[in-house]
Amino acid sequence: MSVLDLFDLHGKKALVTGASSGIGKKVALAYVEAGAEVAIAARSLDTLTALADEIGAGGGKAVPIACDVTQQDQVTAMVDRVTAELGGIDIAVCNAGIVSVTPMLQMSLEEFERIQRTNVTGVFLTAQAAGKAMVTQGRGGSIITTASMSGHIINIPQQVGHYCTSKAAVIHLTKAMAVEFAPHNIRVNSISPGYILTELVEPLADYHRVWEPKIPMGRIGRPEELTGLYLYLAGAASSYMTGSDLVIDGGYCLP
Prior knowledge:
This protein is an alpha/beta fold. The chain has helices spanning 22-33, 45-57, 72-86, 109-137, 161-181, 205-211, 227-234, and strands at 13-17, 37-42, 62-66, 91-94, 141-146, 186-193, 245-248. It is 41% helix and 15% strand. Helix 5 links the parallel strand 5 (141-146) and strand 6 (186-193). The protein is globular, with a radius of gyration of 17 Å. GO terms for molecular function: oxidoreductase activity, acting on the CH-OH group of donors, NAD or NADP as acceptor.
């Protein structure tokens, strides 16, 4: 087998949440390029439909699905639709996430819980539903969660303690699922990006000049610089890896 064959996704069926923009969109496009059929999910169906049309025009296949990952009935329906329309699910990328800048001394309980519901509960519900479908299929699979370097460090000067809490939880949740899902040949790994120029980060432009001097590589990353890692974890190249969290942050966490 060629080393390039280890990254080939032809015949694979993938689900990517948070796919309407940023990291999720780039991952979905990368999976299609590698040969997979992809279900793309987010809250905004209009944006997803435009992306699905773009993928279809290039000869790929994408199924757009509107889903609020904090709602179990919507998540269950989403995975059911993926398996019905694509003929199964081999890869699930639990990528949907949100952030806000709020000092914890002024933070309401509602704001804290809002972040946890999307970033932690949404990951759990998506991974659980995908895992159940993979068990039923009996051919294993790969689940990838998007965590953050914020699960390893506390960001400054922006005050995002609720976000850091949620991403630390995602990392440990990933490890727990990896242990429990391993007997079913389902691998579960997380990726912890650093500062990446996505729609979540663009509104924080005032912080960019503060962050960049602290990044050993001297710049904020681009979403497409993560896609190779998502591709690696999706396919045969990472067949002996589970329960790992991979930080890709330009060296920010090193000093």
